[in-house]
Amino acid sequence: MTARAGSGKVHVVGGGLAGLAAAVALMQAGRPVRLYEASAHAGGRCRSYFDAGLGCRLDNGNHLLLSGNKRALAYLEAIGARHTLEDARQAAFPFFDALSRQRWVLRPNRGRLPWWILHPSRRVPGTRPADYLEALALRKAAPTARVAEVLDRTRPLFARLWMPLAVAALNTGVEEASAQLFWRVLAETLGRGGDACRPLMPRDGLSETFVDPALDALRRGGAAVFFGARLRGLDFADEDVRGLRFDTGAVDLAAGEQVILATPALVAARLLPGLTVPDRYAPIVNAHFRYSIAAPAPAFIGVIAGTAEWIFRKRAVVSVTVSAAERIVDRSPEELAALLWRDTAAAYALPAAPLPPSRIVKERRATFLAEPAQLLRRPQLATRWRNLVLAGDYTHTGLPATIEGAIASGFAAAARLLRRHSGCESERGPRRSPAVPVMGRKQQRLLVECLTD
Fold it and tell me: Domain tally for the chain?
């Protein structure tokens, strides 16, 4: 793969959601793109695959989008995949208490004014309207404050809402999780009302929604995509990157070419001298059971006081996610399957025996630990090299390591390179290749809003 491409080309290294989002935004702006992925598949942690043991297709993890995730939705609009999401049409979050066997559904109203907290049928049982106002303390929390230090742990609302939301969004226990980062999550979702909280789930799978349509769009737009391209090093000269060294060969960069490094944090730190990145991580445990549950059973249920935390009903499987899973990650797959099926059976009123066929997936370094000291280690997108920027959910996005955070970083990296490149263009601006698909006005507006956010 020895090449010397023309001026204006952007080399995106890393085919996770951050890299895909950056590549799509650049392509839509008319920039030639080359995308390199070290593995045999794109998507990173957000992908689907066929599990031979269970005999069905699985999602690598359970990722729940909300209607307020504007960057993720802009990305899906740009790749023509918005229709692959099932929209709940209203904000409703079912919960099940594994200890008391109590059930309830959290139902925020559509507008920003949270009148839903005045109605016992819409709020968490055992809570009062005034309890919800406590969340405003997160807005003024010190940078070093943890969630458990700011919110009252003795109130039912903490165990039944704030804690499960914080752990799910930040993949960090409330004793360590940043209060400021949790506030950002709440402000973009519950703080904007039910219209920003509608659950959105892929109809078929993560790859069918986030990955395959992006690759198709990139190829239709003339982008070159390379798999099995592991970056071993970069060649620097003065203030620029001049070359990329892959296992498969070297790529020399011509004048005007740029690089987005969208690799995992530890890979970026190995490649770039002096780069500081988060260095503490939290695990996630997922369990997939080959068991079909038909509608109208809820598409997902949050579990309180159990081992399971969130259970998702899918076509051929029931999937369970446990975030910040330090307490269980070292248990055997057999023990975990039994514990998690017990909660699943109770939550969905299913037979406890026999135990269905299962697959336990442990991600020991799923995301960086979202505690205050680690947030200070998140790097900015810009680097000391003029033609190199970073992308990835570990960068300083102001968001957790989620789908929304990864896509936000990719859009921001693309926007930075486009601003830098515009200074070298003529007054007429960059040319658009005839091969680049033209988006509709709604897609253009959403993408522009995210690139200028």
Answer: 2
